[in-house]
Amino acid sequence: MNILQIRTSSRVDFVDITSRVQAAVTESQIKDGIVVVYVPHTTCGITINEHADPDVVRDIQYQLANLVPYQKGYHHMEGNADSHIKTSMVGSSETVIIEDGRLVLGTWQGIFLCEFDGPRSRKVYLKIVA
Ligand code: ZN
Questions:
Q1: First-last CA distance in the chain
Q2: Is 128 helix (H, G, I), strand (E, B) or coil?
Q3: How remote is the CA of residue 104 from the centroid of ligand 1, in Å?
């Protein structure tokens, strides 16, 4: 298993980790298989979406904030209930196919770590399976 260390820079922050995942796949020398991209955290997730136009990420963040407001009479006393809920909405992992040593992603797709309670230091676990 590989571990990426990601430093996020604001409370909500999507970090494009596509090139770092590709670098780990390249280093593994595995040509055909899958890579599981997983975060062991309860207030940040992983998603795949467009990384060409940064407005797409802004719109995702904007609408998640509309759906799950920061303060809304939640029970969780830590004050970050919205972060936990958004994390469950986007999920904690993605699986990407590897062909000829390359991640199989669409032209516009990128892999994002989705920070919902930053800024923090986060870990991303990569399991590359041949
Ligand atoms: Zn909490």
A1: 13
A2: strand
A3: 34
- Cα of 43 to ligand 1 centre, how many Å? 7
Is the entire prediction scored with pTM above 0.85? yes
Find, among 111, 108, 106, 10, the residue nearest to 53 by Cα: 108
Asked if the 2-129 domain carries CATH number 2.60.120.460, the reply is yes
Task: Print burial letters for 33-59: b (CB count within 10 Å at least 16), e (below 16).
Answer: ebbebbbebebbbbbbbbbeeeeebee
* DSSP reduced 3-state for 65: helix
67, 96 Cβ separation under 8 angstroms: no
Alpha-carbon distance of 5 to 2, in angstroms, equals 10
Please check whether residue 93 is in contact with residue 46, taking contact to mean a CB–CB distance below 8 angstroms.
yes
| Ligand 1 centroid to residue 97 C-alpha, Å | 33
pLDDT tens-digit series, residues 17-32: 999 999 999 999 999 9
Span from the CA of 51 to the centroid of ligand 1 (angstroms): 29
Q: Where along the chain do its domains lie? A: 2-129
Contacts of 6 (CB under 8 A, 6+ apart): 15, 17, 113, 121, 122, 123, 124
